[in-house]
Amino acid sequence: VEADTPDNFFRAPRSERAQAFLGQILA
Fold first, then answer.
1. 16, 22 in Cβ contact below 8 A?
2. In 1-27, which ranges are continuous DSSP H helix?
3. What does the domain layout of the chain look like in residue ranges?
4. Longest C-alpha distance within the chain, in Å?
5. Given this model, what pLDDT does residue 15 score?
6. Mind listing the pLDDT tens digit for each residue in 6-25?
7. What is the pTM of this model?
8. How many beta carbons lie within 10 A of that of residue 9, not counting itself?
9. Cβ(21)–Cβ(9) under 8 Å?
């Protein structure tokens, strides 16, 4: 399980998580 740290979160190969996360904030 990857830690949801700002660094790993955005660097994670799965940018989908970042997009979904930002999508909820910008929504």
1. no
2. 6-11, 15-26
3. 1-27
4. 27
5. 72
6. 665 556 556 777 788 888 88
7. 0.35
8. 14
9. yes
